[in-house]
Every structure is written in C-alpha cells, then in structure tokens.
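Researcher: Good morning. I'm working through a list of sequences from a screen, and I'd like to move beyond sequence-only analysis. For each chain I'm collecting a predicted structure so we can compare shapes side by side. This is the next one on the list. No need for commentary yet; just the structure.
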Amino acid sequence: QVQLVESGGGLVQPGGSLRLSCVASGLDYDAIGWFRQAPGKEREGVSCVSVSDGSTYYGDSVKGRFTISRDKGKTTVYLQMNSLKSEDTAVYYCATFIGGCGLPLVDDYTGQGTQVTVSS
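Model: Good morning. Structure tokens for this chain:
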C-alpha cells in the first residue's frame, strides 16, 4: 500500500505562487502527480510524472504555470504553482496513477488533500 502525505496549501493572492509537496511511501507505482477538485466542478487532472521515463503531463489550464518535479530520492513530488488565478482554487490531491501519465489518468492511491485558495 502507498501512503501519500501532502503539504503546502494555503491562501495566496492572484498572481502569487505556492509549492505543494507530497511524500510517498510504501509500494512502487507507475506514476505520481496531482488532481484537484473545486466545489461544484468535476475532478481535474493537474499534472503527472512517470516513474519509468520521467515524462510529464499537464492539464491545459495549468500549462506554462505549473511545474511538477521529484526529489533525487524519488520519495517526494512537488508541484510548483506560479501565476495563480482564482480559478485555481480547489482541494489538491496527490495521487499515484496506474499505467503512467497517459489519458485518462487512473488514480490508484490518493492523499488526504490540501486546500489552495487564490483570492485577494
């Protein structure tokens, strides 16, 4: 079983930045990344990185603003979020994905979520 613990959420003004962290432990996985859920909206895949080749995926709404990365020990995945907009407000969940980062993203294990609020 994989355990995922997120941190780094909070309140930020539009145009600001936040970095989310997710510490992963337990079994191996194909890919790891983030999805988000805003009130009244469908769940949205944000970003993913493949363990096998390091390839990445970004949702259209975050391309050019968000960057996913892993530390050298491969136990922590980060999501650097820049130029944040009000529409980025959501609960962000770290997740492992089955089969890599190809669409559709199929999550396997999910963390408890961290709230990101973008507001002035």
